[in-house]
Amino acid sequence: MLRVGLTGGLGSGKTTVAAIFRELGAQVMEADEVARAMMLPGEAVYREIVETFGRGVLRENGMLDRSKLGKIAFAGGRLAELNAIVHPPVIAEQRRWMTALEKEQPDAVAIYETALLFEASRAARTRDWQERFDRRILVTAPEPLRIARYVARIAGSHPDEATRRALEAEARERMAAQMPDEEKMRLSDTIIRNDTSFEEVRRQTEAVYRELRELARGSR
Hints:
Blueprint: E1 2-7, H1 14-24, E2 27-30, H2 31-38, H3 44-53, H4 66-75, H5 79-104, E3 109-113, H6 117-123, H7 129-132, E4 135-140, H8 143-155, H9 161-176, H10 181-187, E5 190-193, H11 198-218
Parallel strand pairs: 1-3, 1-4, 2-3, 4-5
Helix pairs in contact: 1-11, 2-5, 3-5, 4-5, 8-9
C-alpha cells in the first residue's frame, strides 16, 4: 500500500484535489473531519479543549464554536496549546486507519489530507512525516488568490468592504502560522499548482494519481 500525505495552506484547494483523488479511486482520510468528530461533546478532545480554553468556546447547545476557538487560538497566541490537544489523537487515528486499510487493500493508494502535514511534526520537534508517508504532495497557489478564496468561502463573492478587509487580515494571520510554501516545496515529492482552471487541476491530479497507482502496485 502507498501512504500519501496531501497538504496545502489555507485557500490552496487541497480539499478539491482530495475529492478528485477520491473520485479516481484513492482512499482518502481528511484530518479536519477526524478532528471535527473528536471535538463533539463526550469526546476526550472536546473535554480537554473546554478545560483549557473555558466554556466561553461553547455554543448555547454545548457544541464547540470552532470559529470562536480559532480566533482565540490564532489572535490570542494560543495556537500551540490547541494543536497540542488535537494533533496527537488525529495522527494516531491516521496511523490506525492506514494500518487497517493495508490489511484489507494491500495495493491501495491511501491519502491523508491535512493542512499541517509538516507543521504538526515540527511542533512536536520530530520529522515523523518521513516515516508516516511514502510520498508527500503539496497543493499550492499564489497568496493573493488564496486570500481571495478564503474571503469568498466565508462571506461569499460580494462582501462589503469592512468584512472583506477583516477577513483578509484574518487569512494573513492564519497563513502566517503555517509553514511557507517555499519550505513545504523542499519537503514535498510532488507539487500540484492550483492557480488556473479546475480542468487544469484535474489534469495534474489525474497524472499524479497514475504515478501513485503504479507505485502502490509495486509496493506489494
